[in-house]
Specification:
With about 300 residues, the protein is α+β, with helices and mostly antiparallel strands. Strands 1, 2, 3, 4, 7, 10, 11, 12, 13 and 14 form a ten-stranded mixed β-sheet that branches. It is globular and about 70 Å long.
């Protein structure tokens, strides 16, 4: 389908089911062409081979990206034991093989429990993390490898979903983790702990924060839609689903907040939404007992 006429009035959050193959940047470009909206951003990269939930913000909703991308992610993954690659997944070059037939399901489960909770991960060289002003995957393409500091991440849940023993044992697992967790590195580290090496075979994101694959639409559905707005989650709803929300009942206070005012804090760790009726007033954070705006959403004239 060709590019739609440019439009600037299309605001909302699109829950896409990303296919294997294109990069997340490629998806953003296709969304721009399909919708005619030039302001498009996503809330968390998926590798080209990965599939599943990619949350894409359009128009004014791009202001919410930094708040929507902070939620936990849930993945269905499959890994192979006994094969290590330089990219920690099936797309890389094999750098080591070991007979994994000595690994049984019990040993694997015990290894997985070691990676639950708060852990440290060394980001893979194929990641988009910047070191020295350049993304690691750009250095990796030139054959470079640089030192990377371990980063704290949280694995909320890690469950074995299937296991096939053998010289190249395979395991499928479900993982819910904090933003910034590399599942390919999880597969690699589990293999290292078991002494046989490991790498990721496939990855599907089932949920990104409150947004799930059950509500995701395909690129074909997007490009065939007669009215793209019917596929969008309104920005206000997306914010309320992603953040703790507290209502404001005083209309005078609500009006002051649309002008960047502050109010009494709510003793919440991290950003939260303040609402007035069905309206999102903005995103706030407690500072010294006061609710300080990080994003003022509703304009005074909109409230009036």
């Amino acid at each position: 389908m060709g590019r739609r006429p440019p439009r600037t009035d299309l605001d909302g959050v699109l829950i896409l089911d990303k296919p294997a193959g294109p990069t997340s940047h490629d998806i953003v470009q296709r969304v721009r062409r399909a919708t005619g909206q030039g302001r498009v951003g996503h809330t968390g990269t998926l590798d080209p081979a990965a599939t599943g939930v990619l949350v894409v913000c359009l128009g004014r909703a791009t202001k919410l990206v930094r708040f929507l991308q902070a939620g936990s992610k849930t993945y269905a993954a499959r890994m192979v034991l006994g094969v290590a690659t330089d990219s920690q997944d099936a797309d890389g070059e094999v750098v080591g093989t070991t007979d994994a037939s000595g690994v049984d399901e019990r040993a694997l489960c015990e290894a997985l429990t070691r990676f639950q909770g708060e852990i440290l991960q060394v980001p893979p060289m194929v990641s988009a993390l910047k070191v020295g002003g350049e993304r690691l995957h750009e250095k990796a393409r030139r054959g470079e490898e640089v030192a990377r500091d371990p980063r704290p991440v949280t694995v909320h849940e890690l469950v074995l979903d299937g296991f096939t023993p053998g010289e190249r044992a395979e395991a499928s697992f479900l993982v819910t983790c904090s933003a910034g967790t590399y599942v390919r590195t999880l597969a690699h580290d589990v293999g290292e702990l078991l002494g046989v090496g490991g790498s990721l075979l496939s990855l599907r994101r089932l949920a990104n924060g409150p947004f799930t694959s059950d509500e995701a639409v395909t690129l074909d559905q997007l490009e065939a839609a007669s009215d793209v707005r019917t596929l969008l989650v309104p920005p206000e709803e997306a914010a309320r689903r992603s953040l703790p929300a507290r209502p404001v009942s005083d209309p005078d206070l609500a009006y002051r907040l649309t002008q960047g005012g502050r109010t009494q804090g709510h003793d919440i760790d991290g950003p939260y939404a303040l609402t007035y009726g069905t309206r999102l007033l903005g995103v706030y954070r407690d500072v010294d007992g006061r609710a300080v705006p990080e994003l003022v959403w509703t304009r005074p004239e909109e409230l009036a």
